Amino acid sequence: MAEDPMEAIRATFFIECDELLAQLEEGLLAMEQGDTDPETINSVFRAVHSVKGGAGAFGLDPLVRFSHVFETLLDQIRSGKVEPSEAIVAALLRAADMLADHVTAARGGAAADEARSSQIGEALMALTAGGSPEAIEPESAEIEGLAFKPLTITLDGPSDLEATDFAPIPFAAPFAAPPVEAGWVISFRPHDALYAKANDSALVLRELTGLCDEGLGQATVTFDDSALPGLEAMEPREAYLAWTIRLPGSVAEDDIREAFAFVDEDCDLDIAREGVEGSPTMDSSGSDEIAAFDISALIQPPIEAEPPPLDLLGSLLAQAQEPPPAAAPAPPPKPVAAADPAPKADAAAPGAPQAAVPQTIRVDLDRVDRLINLVGEMVINQAMLAQRVMESGAGKAADVNLALAELELLTRGIQDSVMAIRAQPVKSVFQRMPRLVREVAEATGKRVRLVTEGEGTEVDKTVVERLSDPITHMIRNAIDHGLETPAEREANGKSGEGVVRLTAAHRSGRIVIEVADDGKGVDRPRVKAKAIENGLIAPDAQLSDEEIDNLIFAPGFSTASAVSDISGRGVGMDVVKRSVQALGGRISIISTPGQGSRFSLSLPLTLAVLDGMVVTVGKQTLVAPLTAIIESLRPRPGEVRPLGPNQRVLQIRDEYVPLIDTGAALGFGPSALSPSEGVVLLVESEAGRVALMVDHIQGQRQVVIKSLETNYQATEGVAAATILGDGRVALILDIDGLVATHRRGAPKTDSSTSQSPIPMALAG
Amino acid sequence: MTQAADSAHEGSELISFRIGEQEFCVDIMAVREIRGWTPATPVPHSQRFVKGVINLRGAVLPVVDLADRLGIGVAEESARHVIIVAQIRDRIVGLLVDAVCDILSTAEHKIQRTPDLAGDPMQNFIRGLITLEGRMISLIDLDLILDQTRAEAA
Asked: Does ipTM top 0.85?
């Protein structure tokens, strides 16, 4: 299928829009916290400007119009004409949300709300000092703008706006008249490697000067020997010399680049237009090549004052850039490069300092997935090999054993590294939440402050992607049902502004995400009444506070009619619970009346590998997640006691924990062994500690998780599957699910037919 | 292996297989490969006709006992059985059958409607009948097998 190249560029633009919008929001939130650092404001400005530039190139008019108004106000803030007060930042945040809607609309999603858009647009204009946006177009914008203007490939509409930008620079006027193309300034500093590869700088210089032979003007080569040590210190293999070459502006850039084609990896090379464009009539494409910081950098080295007027312009510009802080922010190369859909920009600024910015590449996810699958296969194979070697007896030889151990180490190392490719900070999900908070707060008339912590916590991409829904739900609930109205809060002696805290942290091999609020907590009497009304619990049921809190996870508790009447929580929490369980995670709630609630999600870091305990149950080999296992033991006779008609408990030290026959709970039939013949795994489940009876423990192993759902279906008591060394499939236990099944009494055939008056949430 | 007589005609290619004394076929496009029998790992709480799951080069796929699914008995699993690995929409499923017989092609108009047989569960999965050299071959609609699997599992 032939792909439309324009479509591909467009797709790239939208990917970048996402990044820019995230950057915008991040900057605005920092400003909301009182950050007035020029760099923050600049990054906000740049984000909007880049969206506008790209949108212009694709003729996305509504997006261009809106971002233009937005950008105008931001520029005024940047230049200090407008103070970023709380009200203004709030307006900017609303505008950022709107901008995101416009981007979605441009992408072909839901159409943006035009009325709201123009309302916000007008609000922005009103906040802009000095009337119409055209009149106050930034005077310094073009210097900054130039660095990332390559977006404006076929810019029509916006370009005349840009053209007027130039006027306010007073000293530019005298030189504006001659429509001469600015000359090239090429700074060329060969590295040792250039000569080591038998290249010769002289050839390059000859080729360059040759470019001018066709009657195009004069080339000037300035030779810089400042790095040359004395004769006695000179190392013949080193490169000490550098050149600055000035070429007439009429020489094509491609020709210049071609001259350096073989050496550009082995030298510091900087090709730039001298000065800035001399004329306001100059087309915008001419200005593309000029990166603001390049100019100032180039003016510094002693170079011949070849074409005096231009050089003068250059030095004037250099001066002009120095003193006013607004005019001279060295544009950090990274966001600019990232903001540019056209790869051309990279070529245009090869000298851009690549300093400490970590280099990244964009890789097709499919390729990474393929790699991960292959590594997964390799891990299985390695395990298989180890098993075979042991079986054959060859493992007894020390060197074989050592080599195997090393292979295992290596395999693990590769696996970890491959997994790390997919690791992403949860930031991308957290960043979406401030907007949600604003919207829900607006809709409910509550005042909310969102505090986030641990945004940098990294999790596998698959997990990150699936975090969004549960977190969104929990935050919406926290505001809608958890927090009181400002009036209620003040009446209770709290601050009118509620706090919702969203945190992420690694805890013992899992990621724990918490959403906490300082609201009123679960209204237990009402929750219980509602549960009785819905038939979830018997009217005379005696439930602990914890059990009542857990009722909100019960399916059926969140029917549509219940949403409006319940003052407690419960909207869709069963959905949240299910999606978290699908991820191999668990959710719990801690609530204190009057002080708030805390929802806690515990999820695996990756959905791909797991440290497991391989056990035998009946004829089956099963894997229990190591994270859940506290200890394994063989009970002594007398430590297992019957309780009630068909339950047993295990005495562990002074504690009694329920004993679950794993085989029976899974429907494989009860264990043939008595507990004292088998082994017991003491595990931590959502419902507390339980003891799982198994027949044997085979050992501890890292297993690759294979989804059972891809081709089959989710199965209660089973989290996933894995492939053992012998190539057979083994099931990975879902301890919480198993405990829940057990508590309900193992279902006969189909789990959905067993209806118990006590919902699963209580057990879980 | 006998080539189908009218392979020259346009139409779909089918793979036919035997379960007990009956012959069935599925669209060849859905068949990914045919494997010898491997023991499946049973999955708790699954329907009876799901024998369990097997490993297909790293992927875990369920094995459906077609005989049981079609209501014509339960396969006594043995090494003589064959697993037809079929792609049904986005899923890959193993179908346990007695033996694979033939590759045949047929034109759409040669597929007869299934006669109405009251209360026969198999009807739910059969798209039509094909007569070939005196054999009656039932064309199985794999989508329906999966749909029902899903519906009953839910």
From this structure: no
